[in-house]
Amino acid sequence: MEKLFSNEQVNRGRQVELDLAKCLAIFFMIFLHCYFATSYFEFDISSGLVRVVSQLFGGPFAAPVFMFAMGVGMVYSKNQEPAYLIKRGIKLIQLGFFVNIGEFFVPYFLAGNLLGDWEKFPIANGLLLFCIDILAFAGMAFILVGILKKLKLSAKGMVIVALVLSVIGSFARFHDFGSNVPNLIAGYFIGSAGGFTAFPLFNWFVFPAFGILFGEYYLRCNNKEKLLRFWPAGLAISVVYFVISWFLPHGFLSETHLYYFMTTIDVVFCLMCIYGVIGFCYLVSKHLPDGAIRFFSKTSSNLNTLYVIQWFIIPITYVLIVYFNRDIVFGDLSLIIISLLEMAASTLLASGYKKISI
Q: What residue ranges do the domains of the chain occupy?
């Protein structure tokens, strides 16, 4: 019988199923961000769509999948030297601060100047420039991986560190340090009060850490179909947990901030979901035409640029729509249409940027 894992690397190069999973994760995030922008204005979105967009696909099917795939990508990267990882992490943190300009400051000034409403998009006296979004988190994760590699820690050792941090983050979440600045600084690591962080390091590092461990085995997997054969169970169990949590007073997906400050128990079900998503994407990838495979591979290589672009064009789109139609009430159909257009525009602009930057 063929061993599931080889002693040699047998899966080098781009993995279509991972490219597909990352692209879906980003598209789900764009849908979520369009919903966030909608919520600042008059809207009438059905509770069913809110749950699907904001609490399910925009939640555990998005950022955790992206971060896990990021960890796998570290294993597949040609350069895994600690110094390179730390340097890249610093650049990602800087890029994350740049994203905050598009996410917070662009709509703040647009709404103030065009709509005459300087309170619609608050910026916490400028402190939101340093808010921790997914790219800033990715930067901190790269730095931590670089440090752990410098200490000669194995992938299994990184997972242990990540689990310890997750437990700490589970108990430390929502702590209020008394004022905005300490809450902001602490928010880089734990889910502190004040709304300055979406992805605290302690609560979320577990996903790239497990991605690294998974990637080391995936490189040597002789039979992906056998490895991923339980993906329907992973999806079913995790989705049941997610749906039940909608209706619990302090459930994982009952409120957005509970999702962002997830506990270790929540992480377990998110990891099941990720396994299910990768398995599903592997099944789909076997039936994709070559053109679709090239599209997802190309888009996957542009994801950081795509993510930055979407946070600039989404708020601009909404403010301009309201500027030209002050009485508009955003509904389900408008949310879906705007989201799809933002996905297409972000993808095209990211592709165009890559061409002119080469």
A: 16-357
279 SS3 class: helix
State the Cα torsion 90-109-351-66 to the nearest 10°.
50
- Measured in whole angstroms, the distance separating CA 207 from the mean position of its chain's CA atoms is 10
CB-based burial of residue 228 (10 Å sphere; 0-12 exposed, 13-18 middle, 19+ buried)? buried
d(CA 224, CA 4): 8
Residue 330: burial class (beta carbons within 10 Å; 0-12, 13-18, 19+): buried
| Phi, psi dihedral angles at 249 (to 5 degrees) | -55, -40
How far is residue 162's CA from residue 140's CA, in Å, rounded to a whole number?
Answer: 13
Q: Which residues lie closer than 8 Å to 287 by C-beta, 6 or more apart?
A: none
How far CA 66 is from CA of 72, 106, 176, 274, in Å, comes to: 10, 25, 29, 9
Reduce the DSSP state of residue 310 to 3 states and report it.
helix
* 194 torsion bin: left (phi>0), alpha (psi -120 to 50), beta (else): left
Say how far apart CA 349 and CA 356 lie, in whole Å.
11
The CA distance from 192 to 116, in Å, is: 32
Q: What is the pLDDT of residues 132-188, one digit of tens each?
A: 999 999 999 999 999 999 999 999 999 999 999 999 999 999 999 989 999 999 999
What token pair was written down for 327? 């009485």
- Is 242 within 8 Å of 269 (Cβ atoms)? yes
- Angle value at C-alpha 274, between 241 and 130, nearest 5 degrees: 95
Q: 28-84: per-residue pLDDT in tens?
A: 999 999 999 999 999 999 989 988 888 899 999 999 999 999 999 999 988 889 999
Which two three-digit tokens encode residue 57?
Answer: 């696909």
DSSP string, 157-176: HHHHHHHHHHHHHHHHTT--
Contact (CB, 8 A) for 143 and 135: no
| Burial class (CB within 10 angstroms; exposed 0-12, middle 13-18, buried 19+) of 90 | middle
pTM for the predicted model, two decimal places? 0.94
C-alpha dihedral sign at 24, 28, 34, 37: negative
